[in-house]
Amino acid sequence: MDVISEILSRTPVKSVCRFRCVSKAWQALISDATFLGTHKEPLPLLIVNSIGADEPRDHRDSPLMDLESNLNFYIMGAYKYRGHDLQLLDLDGNVIRVMKRAGTFLTMCSGGAVNGPAACVTLHHSTFNVIDLASGNVIATSKAENMRDYNALNSVFSYGVGCAIPSGNYKLVFLARSQACQVLTLQDGAEWRHAQPSPAQVFFNGYRQYSSVTINGVMRFFHYNWEAPQGDENYILCFHLESEEWKESIKGPVKLTDPYDMPEPIMTELNDTLCIVEWEELVTHVWLLIDPVDSIWVKTYTIPMAPATYVEMPLRMVCDNGEKVLLHCSPRRFTSTATRTLQDYDPLTGSHTHRINFRAYGLGKVGICRMDLKYVVSSKIFTMVEPEEFNLPLLLE
To answer: What angle do CA 282, 283, 286 make, to 5 degrees?
Structure first.
């Protein structure tokens, strides 16, 4: 069995799970703690919010923008459907894990460093939670007690949640249109504190869930103003979460396309690399930052879109019989047959392959992580505790 164990340890998670049906011996081997600890091929998983039958239909689908784009809609108490379940799906749409009443998915948040533990940030009522996706535990949490007042005074703002290095503290950062910057550590009893004003105003483009990206302890905000003079229209503001100081900004790509009748460019990350996505009619351009010191960007992908597609968001580059890009695609108009989908794009052939329909999942944003086999084999359903007990772990249902 030693040779079989070695081969299976390098086999993708999806195949290994199926091989448990081969025999009792294989089932015992694959379920063994020693084997699970040595398996070398993590499984890519999607993070989505599921919706209930009482969810307002207008909120079930929205290209790019989710309800969290308007945080004051939540914070001022205008929206009552806040106990969304969080689901982990494999790339074929199979449910791997469910976290009941986890709240609205905001963003991924690795545990401090590139390839750190898979974690995500959710909002439940006015409480921000960082959830370890492998264990299902809430590992950091804080109620934004005075966020109502802050939001009312600064109705246009950007925000981000990230992990500081080396302390490992998770922090929420708010940038106001006045360039004021406030920071809240996600822990019991923490209070807002003022940091240095941002070097420039972050022009809010309507998609707050894409307004910041944290990689290796540095939170980045996208300053984009297509009406600015040539050479000054886009750059990346860099906030060091440990020192809570602004560092030297990164110049963005060359002047991007004017967003006439299309969404403005947004910033995200692709396989832990900073990424700018822009759209033209029937085309998605993906820029990757390859040298942050000299601000060198490369337009890595130019992806054709079908006429019925409004936007395509790259989620991850995967190696599946050659390099492919996973895309979260939104249609121009939602109907009973036209809904958000997950698709593969093959740069070699220029073709798309359909994977999943997201009709059963709401609130727009989709995240992606990688999880080891030992967490997939023992899939569980977790229930969030009540808001006043968010400092406790998730409870097994």
So the answer is: 155
Distance CA 378, CA 369 (A): 17
Containing domain of residue 271, as a range? Answer: 42-384
Sequence letter at residue 27: Q
Cβ contacts of 168 within 8 Å, gap of 6 or more: 111, 112
Q: Pick left, alpha or beta for residue 96 (phi over 0 → left; psi -120 to 50 → alpha; otherwise beta).
A: alpha
Give the dihedral of Cα atoms 172, 361, 340, 252; nearest 10 deg.
10
Alpha helix stretches (DSSP H) within the chain: 2-8, 13-19, 24-31, 33-38, 71-75, 147-153, 373-377
The residue behind tokens 């406030």 is: 182
pLDDT of amino acid 335: 60
Q: Which residue has the tokens 């039958």?
A: 53
CATH number at residue 77: 2.120.10.30
Instruction: Classify residue 339: in a domain, yes or no.
Output: yes
User: Looking at this protein, which amino acid is placed at residue 57?
Assistant: R
Q: Which residues contact 184 (CB under 8 A, 6 or more apart)?
A: 142, 144, 171, 172, 173, 174, 190, 191, 192, 193
156 vs 100, which has greater pLDDT? Answer: 100
pLDDT in tens, 224-265: 766 655 555 688 999 999 999 999 999 988 766 665 667 778
Give the list of residues 6+ apart from residue 320 with CB closer than 8 angstroms, or none: 344
Q: What is the pLDDT at residue 53?
A: 47
pLDDT of residue 210: 63
Position 19 in a domain:
no
Contact 274, 290 (CB under 8 A): no
Residue 370 has pLDDT above 70, yes or no: yes
pLDDT for the residue numbered 289: 95
Compute the distance between CA of residue 201 and CA of residue 112 in angstroms, rounded to an integer. 26
Judged by DSSP in three states, 108 sits in: strand
Name the burial class of residue 141, with classes exposed (0-12), middle (13-18) and buried (19+) by CB atoms within 10 angstroms of its CB: buried
User: Do the beta carbons of residue 134 and residue 47 sit within 8 Å?
Assistant: no
Q: What is the pLDDT of residue 291?
A: 94
Q: Is residue 12 part of a domain?
A: no
Q: Beta strand pairing status for 381-383 and 95-100?
A: parallel
- Domain-located, residue 217: yes
Q: Centre a 10 Å sphere on the Cβ of residue 244 and count the other Cβ atoms it contains.
A: 17
What total number of domains does the chain contain? Answer: 1
Give residue 63's pLDDT band: very low, low, confident or very high (50, 70, 90).
Answer: very low
Q: What is the mean pLDDT of the chain?
A: 75
